[in-house]
Design a protein that fits this description.
By secondary structure, this protein is α+β, with helices and mostly antiparallel strands. The protein has one helix and three strands; from the N terminus they run E-H-E-E. The N and C termini lie far apart (30 Å).
Length: 64
């Protein structure tokens, strides 16, 4: 079997709490979608979540 014959479903979690969070996540999605071997790329809704632990920081925008 050739590598090109194999297909897998992969979930990738993304998050940002610095700068323009939505733009950061959009750009990350664009880079992933344009990568070789990526087909049928979709993105979940973005959800805002509070940081846990660590130093004081802003809310996260997360998705998959």
């Amino acid at each position: 079997m050739r590598d090109s014959d194999c297909q897998s479903t992969v979930l990738i979690g993304l998050g940002s709490n610095l700068g323009d969070r939505a733009a950061n996540l959009r750009r990350a999605g664009e880079i992933i979608a344009q990568s070789d071997g990526i087909h049928d790329f979709t993105v979940s809704k973005w959800m805002e979540t509070a940081p846990v632990g660590g130093p004081g920081q802003g809310e996260f925008l997360n998705g998959a």
